[in-house]
Amino acid sequence: DTAVSQTPKYLVTQMGNDKSIKCEQNLGHDTMYWYKQDSKKFLKIMFSYNNKELIINETVPNRFSPKSPDKAHLNLHINSLELGDSAVYFCASSQRYFRTGADNYGYTFGSGTRLTVV
Amino acid sequence: DAKTTQPNSMESNEEEPVHLPCNHSTISGTDYIHWYRQLPSQGPEYVIHGLTSNVNNRMASLAIAEDRKSSTLILHRATLRDAAVYYCILRVGFSGNTPLVFGKGTRLSVIA
Asked: Which residues of A touch B102 (CB under 8 A)?
């Protein structure tokens, strides 16, 4: 069973289109994240949700709108796609509070969605 | 989270030990040292973490300096599958709203 699964794995689309990426985790974690990895390979946090509540919203254009229907799902909708949005987007999950001695202290990442805007 | 400094790249021969250094001179008392790695075309994966004492798990060992201003991730026998970017990250215990912040990491190449 895949712990954090993202769909689609690849997404090629034209500028101006609207697209969504879906993420699901089956680890029972209460917090989910979206990270963006650009062509220079820098990983940057975009959003974080805890129990369906937005807790982190980094400086990201309004065209990006996350949505968490429940704590196991976090989707990312992108409006009016631009060339600069081309990147790999990673979903991750964790327990919100890093608890020492617990088994569940790390982040688990999905395998990524490679978005190419042409 | 405090900043870490890692070499951009390192190279190792297969089946030899690898020591990946990380400097974190501004570490605070509540910062835990985490290591993640990112294999090619995959998401990052957790490797190990520690606070003050050295730690061992099935993947690696973490050696932490007595003053905690540096640490070393040790892969005891590098394999080709260990070729990845390794990230050393400081994270406040019970950090709540603070997410993992990734730096540039060290790109490890393993030579057969």
From this structure: 35, 42-44
